[in-house]
Give the backbone structure.
Amino acid sequence: MFGRDPWGGPLEISNADSATDDDRSRDLDRAALMRQLDETQQSWLLAGPGDQAGKKKKKYVDLGCVVVDRKIFMWTVGTILGLGVFIGFIMMIVKLVPHKRPPPPPPDQYTQALHKALMFFNAQRSGPLPKHNGVSWRGNSCMKDGLSDSTVRRSLVGGYYDAGDAIKFNYPMAWSMTMLSWSVIEYRAKYEAIGELDHIKELIKWGTDYILKTFNSSADTIDRIVAQVGVGDTSKGGSQPNDHYCWMRPEDIDYKRPVTECHSCSDLASEMAAALAAASIVFKDSKTYSDKLVKGAKALYKFGRLQRGRYSPNGSDQAIFYNSTSYWDEFVWGGAWMYFATGNNSYLTVATAPGMAKHAGAYWFGSPNYGVFTWDDKLPGAQVLLSRLRLFLSPGYPYEEILRTFHNQTDNVMCSYLPLFNSFNFTKGGLIQLNHGRPQPLQYAVNAAFLASLYSDYLEAADTPGWYCGPNFYTTEVLRKFARSQLDYILGKNPLKMSYVVGFGNKYPKRPHHRGASIPHNGVKYGCKGGYKWRDTKKANPNILVGAMVAGPDRHDGYKDVRTNYNYSEPTLAANAGLVAALISISDIKTGRFGIDKNTIFSAIPPMFPTPPPPPSAWKP
């Protein structure tokens, strides 16, 4: 057979090479079968699975993502289980064997001082004392208050003595209860963390129970309220026993204690309304008592608005010791608290009326006392309180304009507390002179410290890092630094290296101007003049008035630990209320960061804006 050679010649294909591959394969297989196998080859083909020289087939475990030798897998699992049992056994031993836990970190100095500051209120209680009062040298006292006055003839037992005497001044007492309640509303979690919540609520209730006795709290309309129990004026001479002429333990008082009522006292009535309204928020979980407080607050605020007048007419006992300069600030302050307690917009309308703010002194920027928060001037506190409303609820029209004004004025007040603005002088030791160098400066300093610390917490809760003083921006830490500086001064960081809170620190006043603390509790009754020897002695008081903040140093950082000089050594209810509020606001609880309670104060306020109506139902043809 010939084919064409691509190179030009003939191509010859041999027939011998034309056999197919299959033919060749069959020939090879046939040859292999015909070949004789040797013994080794035969053993390979005939041997069984167990006859291959003792070799064993390995076993594996398929874990899905990887194949592992079974023996290694079993060893690994066994090791892990063994370690688990061993570790569990060790942990069980550690738990069962008794061991000492590390003590919790000690509370900061502000918390330590707070525990003591609250005890001052226990020492100031009047009436039948509870068994757990905790002040061993105090007992039941003035158990006939009100009943022995022929013009009143009802029980006015209870309440708190104002200072180192045994007078019950309702004006500063009510303000003190408002301040304590405000501090609980804002810092309830802090009080609970340090174990003082039940204590301070008990102290507040002791005060509000008494306030409810001082007017007809079951009526919707009243025409009189009690202003004070006891008398302190000794300017007229004579030897008529009263609470200032005599130096006696309250438990031994046997002289008459007249009751002073007022029929036109807007300032006192509005402050008492504020106290009951604020306390109603503290006790909102006890509906019956909270409602009772609100009912009384409504009657008082209504009375104050209708019967205009100051509670302290010229020449009266009230004017001598706790004179009220105006009642307009109480209208704003009381109206704000009434709004928070009831949610009734009519109270907010009063508190934010432009004319009300003007009369209260909101625009008296040149006044030397502008921004000084006291038991007499509540406007700075009311401005902070209403700034809170704007920061968190922003009620809008028609309140926005005056709320914005109050907010801006609060910023200005905070600026005035800073030394660089020279609004107020400071002593060389660092104490702010909010009363311009006059005696008893500490009560004003603690109130300012509270407002500064609280306002800084408001700003932080509103995600605002600070505020402006003119073109300059200051962080909230600047306010806290100011608050801490004032409290540090009071607690011992001052030129005299002494604490002005009795019982706190190693060096503190030993001779506070206080009748009960200065007379021994030895079973001997000392009459009206019998206690003079204890008043005039240079010895330290036999009873420690724990937690009492004295009036404080002079403008040169000097202090005289003299019992008869009350301008240095007398503590008061109102001053300690401000101290408690300032301490809880600045305290650093080690168990966590506690800010303000943003919502509780607004619990009675209905939604600011109506709920949108539900969407219409689906259209059906």
